[in-house]
């Protein structure tokens, strides 16, 4: 198959848009053209992408009639433009199934599995797999756990590239040591209380400041619980929470200025096994992509990407590990240098992985 491809990247829902830019970056060089075919709600979030030759924004609305019209529009766009390759940024769900049941021109289909153990669950998955034979999972450690069926191929792909955006109003006070916890407050995913319960304002390194980097609505029960715990322990001044949605420029400006990333994913949380076998946290992408070291639970020890990127801790000694890293930032700089040269976090490496799957 020639590399002079015309490529469509599809996202028919409005989640997982954090992976789209990496797909564009990795396909930009070999592709003749790249088109985005996406839910209309992603138009603003992708406006800063460069290297896009065309786009179709599908308005699925709220009714069955709008859904049908939107899918017909997507089908027409794919049929009219003669694409060689179509990449489903999310290869699951009834909307993707319904599109793939329509008559479509011949093209190479690639699907992204964000939760690998659901790859072939349910009727929709089986119908999708009739047309989509090649899949991306978002880290190599997931591949051994993929319930692969005969005739299907899987590759690891790391969406660790981000648009060069910034917000000049995001400033960092001199001397502060930023520990960033990406994502809006969800206690079922992240162990905020484990962290807060271990912190002692009198013993915490004076430069340490935590950013909970996501929408934290004051009316949300999880947000209220976290804020209350911080107040009880006199830690409010050591944390920043946001009560608004952070636009792309602002979010990435905070990440870029961070000293270390703390996913706060621990074995006691109900979804931990999925994170250890079947999916990755957005916090991992951010650390790998920006070359910012992570503080990770020692359950990840022995996985090569994490061994190159992480300072490990046991859950009962998290606060102690935070102080150790804040007090010895030479260790942090050394780890960042390792990450900057680590092969799997490089554009050419990930581009070659993606191309090898398309051509397989």
> Please, how many helices?
13
Cα distance, first to last residue? Answer: 9 Å
Q: What percentage of amino acids are in beta strands? A: 15-25%
Tell me what the CATH architecture of the largest domain is. 3-Layer(aba) Sandwich
Number of domains: 2
Overall form: globular
SSE pattern, N- to C-terminal: EHEEHEHEHEEEHEHEHEHHEHEHHH
Q: Please give the share of residues in helix.
A: 25-40%
Query: Looking at this structure, what is the CATH superfamily of the largest domain?
Result: Glycogen Phosphorylase B
**How many strands appear in the DSSP assignment?**
13
Strand order of the largest sheet: 3-2-1-4-5-6-7
What's the quaternary structure here?
single chain
What structural class is derived from the secondary structure elements?
alpha/beta
- Specify Rg, calculated over alpha carbons: 21 Å
Written account of the structure:
With about 350 residues, this protein is α/β, with parallel strands linked by helices. It folds into two domains: about 5-160 and about 345-360, Rossmann fold; about 175-325, Rossmann fold, CATH 3.40.50.2000. Helix content is about 35%, strand content about 20%. The chain has helices at about 20-30, 65-80, 95-100, 120-130, 190-200, 220-230, 250-255, 270-275, 280-290, 305, 320-325, 330-340, 345-360, and strands at about 5-10, 30-40, 55-60, 85-90, 110, 135, 155, 175-180, 210-215, 240, 260, 295, 310-315. The chain is globular and about 65 Å long.
């Amino acid at each position: 198959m020639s590399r002079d491809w015309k490529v469509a990247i599809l996202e028919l829902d409005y989640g997982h848009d954090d992976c789209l830019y990496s797909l564009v970056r990795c396909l930009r060089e070999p592709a003749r053209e790249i088109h985005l075919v996406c839910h209309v709600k992603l138009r603003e979030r992708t406006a800063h992408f460069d290297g896009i030759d065309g786009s179709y924004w599908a308005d699925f609305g709220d009714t069955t009639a709008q859904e049908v019209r939107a899918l017909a529009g997507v089908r027409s766009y794919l049929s009219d433009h003669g694409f060689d390759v179509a990449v489903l940024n999310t290869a699951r769900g009834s909307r993707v199934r319904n599109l793939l049941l329509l008559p479509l021109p011949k093209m190479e289909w690639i699907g992204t599995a964000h939760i690998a153990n659901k790859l072939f669950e349910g009727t929709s998955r089986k119908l999708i797999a009739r047309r989509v034979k090649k899949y991306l999972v978002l880290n190599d450690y997931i591949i051994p756990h993929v319930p692969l069926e005969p005739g299907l191929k899987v590759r690891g792909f790391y969406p660790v590239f981000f648009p060069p955006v910034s917000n000049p109003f995001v400033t960092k006070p001199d001397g502060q040591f930023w520990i960033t916890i990406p994502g809006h407050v969800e206690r079922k995913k992240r162990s905020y209380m484990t962290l807060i319960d271990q912190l002692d304002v009198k013993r915490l390194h004076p430069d340490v400041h935590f950013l909970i980097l996501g929408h934290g609505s004051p009316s949300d029960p999880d947000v209220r619980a976290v804020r209350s715990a911080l107040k009880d322990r006199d830690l409010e001044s050591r944390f920043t929470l946001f009560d608004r949605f952070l636009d792309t420029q602002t979010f990435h400006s905070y990440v870029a200025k961070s000293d270390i990333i703390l996913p706060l994913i621990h074995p006691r949380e109900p979804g931990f096994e999925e994170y250890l076998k079947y999916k990755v946290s957005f916090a991992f992408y951010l650390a790998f992509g920006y070359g910012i070291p992570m503080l990770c639970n020692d359950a990840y020890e022995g996985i090569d990407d994490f061994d190159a990127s992480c300072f490990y801790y046991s859950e009962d000694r998290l606060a102690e590990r935070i102080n150790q890293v804040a007090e010895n930032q030479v260790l942090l700089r050394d780890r960042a240098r390792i990450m900057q040269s680590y092969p799997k976090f490089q554009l050419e490496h990930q581009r070659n992985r993606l191309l090898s799957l398309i051509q397989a």
